Amino acid sequence: MPDYKNMPKLDFGIWPNQFKKSSKHPIKTGTIEMTETLLKAMLERAKGGEMPVLSVAIWERVSRNNRTYENAQLQLKPSTGHTDTPPSPEENDEEEDEYGLPF
Predict the structure, then answer these.
(1) Per residue, what are the HEC states of the chain?
(2) For 67, which of 34, 51, 93, 97 is 20 to 30 Å away at the CA?
(3) What is the arithmetic mean of pLDDT over 63-84?
(4) Pair 100, 47: CB distance under 8 Å
(5) pLDDT of residue 85
(6) Averaged over 30-48, what is the pLDDT?
């Protein structure tokens, strides 16, 4: 079984959409504020030639205001040890910022 204990993770809420007016609108919404720790771990995985994969878990909760919502968690899955050949510098000529991100 993979060891998730020390893997970077973050929690966020998924709430009923108060603005839903038609069947085309989402039933729930939420926001995810990515942490620098998780982003760096994902980047290091990608730089090592392995696609970073996140797992998601969801729990039902009730807020202090008695509103029901879902508490969700994203977590970087442990490395599979499988790596792809990273692109050569000629193939990846975009300028990178201080974290190695091309934007």
Answers:
(1) CCCCCCCCEEEEEEEECCCCCCCCCCCEECCCCCCHHHHHHHHHHHHCCCCCCEEEEEEEEECCCCCEEEEEEEEECCCCCCCCCCCCCCCCCCCCCCCCCCC
(2) 34
(3) 86
(4) yes
(5) 47
(6) 93
